[in-house]
Amino acid sequence: MMFTEFEGKTLGEEGFTKDDVIKHLFRDNKQDDEDDGGNDGNIEEEIFKDGSLELFISKNIKDPWDKTKFKGYVHMSPKQKGEFGERFTEKFLTMNGFDIKSASTSTSGYDRMVNDKKCEIKFSLATRGKNGGITKDSFIINHVSKEKDWDFLLFIGINSEKNMRIIWFKKEDFKENCNTCFNFQQGGKKIENDDYMCTNIKILVKCDWVHEGIDSLKNIMFKDTY
Prior knowledge:
The protein is of the alpha+beta class.
């Protein structure tokens, strides 16, 4: 930025006012911005020139659920996916005769009251495979806590519109056995974080403390033998 036109002058002299300085500064800043923008644009055009970056994006935003009622789910934020899962599960449980109530507060350690039991809800669509399609039973159950206020956890995993994986377990069983198939999440053992995740559902369902299917939950809840 050049100020040679003001050399040897003092503010207030004839022909040299505060407005002159302001105009000069804004004019130069605008010019600098225009120059920088032009250069950035040229760099961006060069980087994308061979089309490989755009191809990478297009391959990784493919929605394997495009032909189903779950179209668009993969593009939602984690918070939106969580809320969708809770709504889906509530409707599913209601259809199966369960009594559902909302959690007492938005910060409660559970998501719904199910037959007067505090239920932590987890929901997932099967993850996308390398070929862009669905990998069956490829689910993630994350952010499970030993100390939060819940009685049982219910997980619904969607393989297709006609194929759901439903599992559930009690909190006390999780606390005693979680190390068998759950791992620490977000920092792990080093910070003693009460945050666990499971990435292998096939191993989880083989555990004797884990129950499969909605009928097994009905047998416990409806017979009041929970």
